[in-house]
Design a protein that fits this description.
Strand order of the largest sheet: 8-3-10-9
Largest sheet: 4 strands, antiparallel
CATH class of the largest domain: Mainly Alpha
CATH architecture of the largest domain: Orthogonal Bundle
Number of helices: 16
Order of helices and strands: HEEHHHHHHHEHEHHEHEEHEHEEHHE
Number of strands: 11
Number of domains: 3
Shape: globular
Strand content: 5-15%
Structural class: alpha+beta
CATH superfamily of the largest domain: Porin chaperone SurA, peptide-binding domain
Amino acid sequence: MEIISTTKETRLQMIGWMQKNNKYLVPTIWIATIAFIGAGAVGWGSMQFGDKSSSIAKVGDVTISKMKYSFNLNNLYNQYSQKLGNRFDKEMAKKLGLDKQVYNSLIRQALLLNLAKEYGIIVTDEEIGKEIINYRAFQDKSGAFNKSIYDNFLRSRGMKPKDFESIVRDDLIIAKLSKLIDVDPTDFEKEVIKSTFKIADKIKYAVVSAKDVNVTLSENEIKDFWQKNKLNYLSPKKYKLELVWTKPDGINVTDKEIEDYYKANSYEFSDKNGKVKELAAVKDDVKKALLLKKIKKDAAIARSRFKKGKIKAQESIEVAQNDAKFSNEIWKALQSAKDGDFLKPKVVNDSYVTIHLLSVVEPQPKSFSEAKEDATKDLKAQKTKEELNKLADSYLKDPSKLTIDSKEYISLSEFKVLPSLTPQDSQAITQKIFGSNKEVDKIELRDSILVYKIEDQKLIDNNKTISFLDKEVKAIKSGDFNGNLYDSLSKKYKIQQF
């Protein structure tokens, strides 16, 4: 069965609803597509969701499951990891707020699913099956869907077919909703937005940076700053552990075994686009995975003997939380473990490790001597920013002190590098100037502040340039629409966080 509400009348009803709830009538929506074939699952630590054991939130009639949250969080983590490599870890992911990004995206998706449900948009089992069957990562070399690859994919992520199919269903529903309410910008809207690109400004400016101010700190100032901000300077949480390793020493595998394992688990060896790599390119990785499979039972036996006191620890360590020695999966297990627990064997490089958690050493405020270097750095940055703003404000009060001339007129339609600025800063400055209605203003850059005054303004003839802006115009309308749409839907459908 296809979409129920595809009639012209229903489409007009939906557009009408958009008109009443969005001041700009920009029917283009953001869709959170799921790149569901990434690297293996990534552990993310223990999560607390109150009494709703299987869900993290409910939006209107749509429930957001823990399974879906974890699945999307792992995928987003893997996308960053593929782009940034070893530079990206769990700590950086937390600083970037990946967990919040995923939570917010699922809330927005649930709002759209409620709207789709209201207008009778559905996706059939046949459509879901076709989507999964056509996905390259689930196909063998001949291009045919391979059920064993699909089953292994689900098993490796602890998912049932209905769980994964539910995720695919939601994506397809939102894709259909998008098509129904997508309307191109009008000619008038295009002209209004493009008119911005016909304006050119000539400016004078000054750039103030750290070299223009003198900041000195006394020992007492640093100590006083540390005293007021002690909780910002804590020692890392530490874990006292005993370890037993299980390694694949003396175990050999044949080329035939490697080839058979690859055929059954080829989805594990995909590139960032979901395309399965050739065996020759990943043979070492396949061999490693096969060896780990062969010693998995030995690792389980070693854990049992370790727990019963029949073998002693091979290593005793104290390690800071999130240390790169262990994977995110191990840290997830440690953070939810209790003193005295023996963790199930986990993979570290080409071996298994069984971890006995002796005790956890909670973070403590560092002494002044331990925190002095970081406190000095933070206080200096704070003082420098204060002094830079004072200096910038003096230029705002007396723009005649601005000495750098842009030389040429700047505009959004033709990029120019401004004197004394990098191309990146020049672009940011230009965008902010044309996004402001002030003749004189200051703009904060990464490590400096620019103060400018618009000296002259003119209209330029650049129809040839702006004729290529249709995509940008639609993107602008789409961005504005997103905020208005989700604001309206969040008032329409109750959001409950568990």
